[in-house]
Amino acid sequence: MESPDLPSTGSLPRIQRGRSQTSRHPEQSLFDMPRPARWLHLLLCALLLAPPACAGQGRQVASSPPAAHDPEDATARVDAAITAAIDVLAAAEPNPHLFLFMDMFHRRFGVQRFAGSLARYDDLMLRSRPGALPELRALRRMLDPDTPIDSNGRSICVPTIDVLTCPALYCDRLPPPPAYPAMLREAIEKGRYILTHVGLVMIEARDLGCKGFVPSDVEESAIDGMTKLVATDGRLTDVEIEAATFLQYLGHADGIPRGFTEEVLANQKTGGGWALDSAQEGQPASWHPTALAAWYLMESRPASGPRSTMVPLR
Fold first, then answer.
1. Does residue 10 sit within a domain?
2. Are residues 31 and 77 in the same domain?
3. Which distant-in-sequence residues (6+ apart) come within 8 Å of 98 by Cβ?
4. Which tens digit of pLDDT belongs to each residue from 169-216?
5. Model's pTM, two decimal places?
6. N or C, which end of the chain has less CB nearby within 10 Å?
């Protein structure tokens, strides 16, 4: 469609697919034009920004490929994002699940600010209401491999705790509940966080050396499902970061789309945290996606040596 802001092109030869229809030698056609028409043609090409319409007009210069990101600059950006996230987490309201992240960050990545997480967790247990203690005792295994499992003959995995991840957390000491594989398969069908928690079960079982605890078909379905949760579409969600982090930990980083790390960095808020859903305008940062994003970024960095497992070993 001809732009109403441009002069008429009736005096110009018609251009189609990069070739002038008035000359057998397109590279000569521009210079065969009268000077006013030649200038009008060049102006039209510039305004329309249509290189194919101007192809063949004189010597063509290959466009330069886009400049690659400086690896050192990319590393510095990741390091700065992690530092800001650690500051946010250190200042967050204490809660038991946050201490699980903090302790793991200290053991696995050497974050010294979180060195006292087990003591802080135990202090929080002392100040918790009695009804919360059974769940807190069960979760304590994430920080201390010598956590006792004696619960007066009752299961350590109380009803209020995650029925998928708790059995895996004790898979080296206790058998799984009846129909556990069926529970895992059903969880994959439900998707989202229930699906990613099957990924968490896989991490726990692998860390503790519980071979066969997760059936191979469940593992394959979980990896496939978590891969489908991760996208580079401009929107970043908490469950998406969780899926990408677990894929990274389990050695399936090839399932994470190229550019996802850049998307994580781009969605960090000015205060250093991440929101549960970047598409929700004005949503404040939350500790959970912030912890996951920090874990993802630290996990993606090359290891300088052996890393501690997520679940501490006895």
1. no
2. no
3. 89, 92, 287, 291
4. 999 999 999 899 999 999 999 999 999 999 999 999 999 999 999 999
5. 0.77
6. N
